[in-house]
Amino acid sequence: MAIFVMSVQMGPAFGPLIGGFVTENISWRWTQWVILFGIAIVLTITMLMHETYKTAILQARAKRMGIDGPPREERTAAQSIKFFARQTLIRPMHMTFTEPIVTFFDIYTAFLFGLLNAFFAAFSWVFENTYGFNLGAVGLTYLGQAVGSIIGCAVIIYTSKVVWAKETDRLKESDPNARLPPERKLIIAKIGAVLLPIGLFWYGWTAQHNVHWISPVIAEGFFSCANILIFTCALMFLQDCYGAKYGASAASSNTFARYLTAFAFPLFAIQMFEGVGTGWACSILGFFSILLIPIPFLFDKYGERIRQKSKYQPDE
To answer: What does the UniProt entry say about where the protein is found (predicted)?
Structure first.
């Protein structure tokens, strides 16, 4: 999960780096060729990948062995449309407005995703106008975000594979079926919630003519690390709370909310930075991020009680 989330941030971090030098030294049209080459590589890798969906694997295995596979529910066309609408449209929207866990983490991660895309638009403006960087140099500043993403990913992997694994083993000594409470995983989100406004205020008030450019680049790392800590833990928390049966619907709700803000934030990001300046633009976003800090703390304290009242109890 951490690597998946990291890839969301690493692509846009390395894209401007490559695109900046390509545009500066060859032509902006060659940025499209670079993308096409990347697509060709990814599609080739995808075609060589093996099936991972459990039901499809079992059905293929049964077919090879000449036996009946897992039972498949037969539906008419109308029933299939109704099932599709209920599973992929109605349930996620219903969870958005009736499940507090889904609602508040939708708000939090939507803000994070919008913030991320707003900064992709604003980074170039800040370093070009404040420090006079050319396209290639601006692309290099995105490495701060890449480093922050890698650090955040490493923290989550270590915590998951070492800390949480040991805690789970201790629980299973007394009960083989014991699971780590979902709320335990919010510890990393709480750390990220505190780091996020620090990174925003740091970036905003050090991206100035009289401050060395390395300071806002380091602040990018703090912001990016906080982003990946909160985002990854939010997805893991939703999955643990709602299980295999309803987790996908919770994730769908979250994805819809994220991409709404990803579309909206870049529309006003540059105008906001131009209008109020880098310091106050980041401060406005920082103050809003402070308002969101209590979310992981409150669910850490009251999450179990809220889950018990949920209409979408996961399968044990």
So the answer is: Membrane
Residue 264 Rama label (left phi>0; alpha psi -120 to 50; beta): alpha
Task: Spell out the domain ranges in the chain.
Answer: 2-71+79-308
Mean pLDDT by 10 residues, the chain (316 residues): 70 74 79 85 86 75 72 67 75 91 95 89 85 83 88 89 84 79 91 94 91 92 92 91 86 91 88 91 94 95 90 76
Cβ–Cβ under 8 Å, residues 110 and 261: yes
Phi, then psi, of 177 in degrees rounded to 5:
-95, 5
Instruction: Classify residue 186 by burial, with Cβ atoms within 10 Å: 0-12, 13-18, 19+.
Output: buried
**Looking up tokens 């179990």, which residue turns up?**
304
CB atoms under 10 Å from CB of 17, counted, come to 17
d(C-alpha 99, C-alpha 97), whole Å: 6
Architecture of domain 2-71+79-308: Up-down Bundle (1.20)
